[in-house]
Design brief:
Two copies of one chain form a homodimer. Chain A has about 280 residues and is of the alpha/beta class. Chain A contains eleven helices and nine strands. Chain A is globular and about 65 Å long. Chains A and B meet through helix 7, helix 8, helix 9, helix 10 and helix 11 of A and helix 7, helix 8, helix 9, helix 10 and helix 11 of B.
Chain lengths: ~280, ~280
């Protein structure tokens, strides 16, 4: 499918993408671009890439697909850097958790040039762990992957990027970056804020009584703090909007409890369970 | 260890206790007391009990340990009923998620009589599932189990109940019922309120993009709605107190985000992650 795929940022996500490409033989060569020799060594040891380089020019030249899988705040900068060395016709995509500002910034960098195309992506997989050591070739299998489309998106590149993620086993959805940021604020960024707050408000002494419920509900609060701070700030408007939606719902439920409205609480909890069972635990995923 | 252990209410928890007792041969006989013939059949099919009965008298007579593992609201009533038929010297315990009102009600029912002893217990295990089909003999292994002690608690009975839970693999902690309700409101009831609210506030349409983070954070929102409504109401004061603690923390974090206080957010998230990693993910559990 591809001659050379270059992955910039080979951590949990980038590494899993590399492993999946290599396993499924979707490219003749998978090259990783690194900032630190130590990370390059680890990625080679995990067989996440065929070749590692610290040189952007060397990494990007000859690549027909360039995937930027670094922390969100660094994506536009790395894209601008990669564009300078990218072959004519190369497609650039990313794996960032927020899309509006990444897509508009990179679209601006490309400008009217038709030399390279950019298509924003957000493979929605991962865990609370970071680092290539946790990468798995099946990480994306069955996971949602949102691919963005704007008035500037090259259609052929969009189709190719969508097909690429599908071939890694992801369930691809195409949408507008703003729509992405709104949905993902609710379904991904908000759960992180909530989990961090829950783990934050419980005194450490009480945590010795933590059973599976607490552990699961707060699992993502063991995620990398700076990575998530960046994500929250990069999608601040929608995160704040989601935060208010959650708080309103929460206080409606807590108020019913406070007023002793047993019927109201039961009706509310039953509806939530039914909705979650249908959507998340449903048979067809 | 015991001649006959009677379990009143053989669902996920009661069934797991039955399986564990039988596996570890802690009693010559495990008898289940049921309200419905259908549930009795299912428990026998799962081998959670040796014998099933719909008759409280038959179930309780001759038992040296009686465990009430039914939904919280029914525990005091079933205890009062069981006491009428219990042998002299029998120990009664329960598996309810709330302790103050259960313990004080049953202590009152026993009164000054020394015929039977009651010791409140809360094995903190379970899942979002209900029913004996999900019972597992290892459900309690490594889980916290709180055993309550009041001025009325018979010391020998307390020691025996604590030893019993330990022999099922649980990590036993002895505390005052009020202290239990306060800690458990934070570590167990609050996560359920939060998870229900999170699953409640996200539109069903957005749930198709749910990745592992959302699934884990809301897993317990697929728990039985009425069972949890009962638990919340039975520990209402402490649940409301915990709800305010969470909301205060949540809004402190969201406000920092809103003000663009990057240093504050980072510092806060890092501290939370470190605390959770130490306490929940720590090597020594």
């Amino acid at each position: 499918m591809f001659k050379k795929i270059t992955i910039i940022g080979v951590g949990l996500i980038g590494g899993s993408i590399g492993l999946a490409i290599r396993k499924r033989k979707l490219a003749r060569e998978v090259v990783g671009v690194f900032r630190h020799a130590q990370t390059a060594k680890r990625a080679l040891r995990c067989k996440a890439v065929d070749k590692a380089t610290m040189d952007m020019k060397e990494g990007v030249e000859g690549a027909d697909l360039i995937i930027i899988a670094s922390p969100v705040h660094s994506i536009p900068g790395l894209a601008r850097y990669a564009i300078r060395f990218a072959d004519k016709g190369a497609i650039i995509t990313d794996a960032g958790s927020t899309k509006s500002w990444i897509v508009s910034d990179i679209d601006k960098a490309i400008g009217r040039s038709k030399a390279v195309s950019f298509v924003g992506s957000h493979p929605m997989a991962g865990s609370e762990h970071t680092g290539v050591e946790f990468a798995r070739p099946d990480l994306l299998e069955g996971s949602p992957c949102i691919v963005t489309k704007t008035s500037r998106t090259n259609k052929a590149a969009l189709a190719k990027v969508a097909k690429f993620w599908k071939s890694l086993g992801a369930r691809v959805e195409i949408m507008d970056p703003a729509e992405h940021d709104k949905s993902v604020a609710l379904i991904s960024h908000l759960p992180h804020i909530v989990a961090f707050s829950l783990a934050g408000c419980v005194p450490e002494g009480a945590m010795r009584y933590a059973a599976e419920g607490f552990k699961d509900t707060t699992r993502v609060a063991s995620s990398d703090a700076d990575l998530w701070a960046d994500i929250f700030f990069s999608n601040k408007k929608e995160v704040l909007r989601s935060a208010r939606i959650f708080s309103d719902f929460y206080w409606r439920l807590v108020s019913m409890l406070s007023k002793g409205d047993s019927r109201g609480v039961r009706k509310c909890l039953r509806a939530i369970k039914a909705k979650r069972d249908r959507s998340v635990n449903g048979p067809k995923r």
